[in-house]
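Table 4 source record.
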Amino acid sequence: MTTATTDPRPAPARDVLDEVFDAVLFDMDGTLVSSTRSVERCWLRLAEEFRMPTDDLAPFRYHGVPGRDIIDLLLADRDADERAAALARVVDLEVSDTEGIEVLPGAVEALAVLGDAGLAAVVTSCGARLAAARIGAVGLPAPATVVTADDVERGKPDPEPYRAGAARLGVDVRRCLVVEDAASGVRSGRAAGAAVLALRTTEPEGPDGDPDLVVDDLSAVRFEVSDAGVRVRRA
């Protein structure tokens, strides 16, 4: 597995409420939708089928990291064929298990403001099949631009996913706002050069990684679009 390339010296915090952004890049799981119960069910079943110790599946340890990278870590002693089989199996399990997936507060409103204007992208650590299944299960009005683990070589916390999201929108990632709930995603956004708004939707204190601003969820802020770009206001 390729080691993520992140800057060990975080940039100074930015005033998210004072900047104007060219676009907003949203994580999906834990940011726009809650899929925790499905994830737990599917990974525990995978652990049983592939004889993986469940202690390695402690909550939040791998949250926001691509499934292929988790498999490589948990099954490091297995050959490539078995790791590939495990990844395919957990994807199949998660795609078919969408029970209990919910839209998180403020997500629909945020996407309604930004999506139609072409000022938003979803940047998720899951693959395209799984992203489509979860978005479809809750009828989330996702923007046209969705970057998944299938689109990048290196997943979060590497900066590649958020750089790819900005590139697809045709904007400079340094003029983007990343919205995240996971430490791996915060680090990815920071390393890419974006400002980062973090949510407490997964961890009560919010994620590590030096986000620029932390709020409870997307209902705590509102987005305003003008000719100049996107501003963030407290709701």
